[in-house]
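Input for the complex:
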Amino acid sequence: MVFLTLSCWIRNRGPDRYWKVQEVLSNARHFRGRKNRCYSLAVRAVRRAFVYATKARKIKRRNMRTLWISRIAAASREHGMKYPALMHNLVKSSVEVNRRVLSDLAITEPKSFLSLAKLARARQQEGFGAALGDGKEPPGVFSRIVTLQ
Amino acid sequence: MALTLRSGYLEMLRTCWRLQARHVKIPVLNQMGLLYPAIARHRSSQSKLPSSYVPPTSLSRPPWPEVSYISSDEEERQHKVVLENVNTLLAKEDYGRLFAVVHFASRQWKVTNEDLILIENHIDAECGDRIRLEKVLLVGGEEFTLIGRPLLGRNLVRVEATVIEKTESWPKVHMRFWKRHRYQKKRIIVQPQTVLRINTIEVAPRLT
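Predicted:
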């Protein structure tokens, strides 16, 4: 008599548990503590790490832009202009250099940045001159304000 | 407050007299100046300034800074001088390394010779093809800068590049997880990349 049910009691749990576990643990090898060795802890830590990485990819763009803006503001203040004035006047002069390149120019090409700042300053003065005008009333207008002459 | 000042002055005078045993006699004019400082100021101001003088206040001049006007002739002369200088520089071709700001693949790049650029998308050119980058915003060297409004002319600047490599990026993981809601999604993103090497930047020596 042969005992035949022994072979029915053996469970085949799946041949590649080792590789599935390694897939997760390999992403956790540089973590601190038991998270880099124990699978249950590692799963949670790796999931958080991936979610942080996806969110950070969006936030990185925002942070880079604020960094460029603060660098351009510092460089323009060295030349006696403020950041909003510089950008507005460059846009009005139809110069479409973006903030990343402007910050690179401010760091590596100071003379070119100075020329851009001077261009913006000239456009600003032109704008002020146009706003102030001649100091006279426009023709054909009768005004209550009487200037002493 | 004026009264207390005057009394303070009197006290000072009295103490001085007591200390110096009443030998010091301050002449009458000066005494009046010490007792009534307003009179002293009035006396000093009367002699120097004309009667039409108005002291400056916060409303003496407008709050905006003064604008210095340049006449159009002067401006034209200045422009001509600058143009001549730049034209002589370009004609000599004595400038060293040039840099250019180029608009390519919806991004702006600050580029020089022998530069490598990594672009995160696919380009329709094969490896080894020579490409001309046409949208140039700015060209500069050590002595001069040419600023385009917004672009510089095609016959003014020539930027050439070669396609070196066409690969894919490393596999980035895009994961979403919402805690206590049994929701998670994992996706692997692989983006095509192209590497360009900038060969030359040339400027044509003719400006009006």
